[in-house]
Amino acid sequence: MKIDTENLISITEANQNFSKVVKKVDSDGQVIILKNNQPRYLVSKIDDLQIKLTDNELMEVVAKRILSEHKHAFEVLAK
Question: The whole model's pTM is what?
């Protein structure tokens, strides 16, 4: 990941002026918040977040959702 030094903000400044952080994220896409002069947090738009699941991971998510939504029916069928 390339870090643009213009997008670095100290945690103190972020705490005191969070609206500045949000404006910077809106204009530049992301902001890195430093704690003890070390990059610690990344703030970005949720729209920019792209999570790619494999087919197996997607199937697992769907299976867990179905099992949790119909748990009672599966318990009755298991008897």
Answer: 0.57
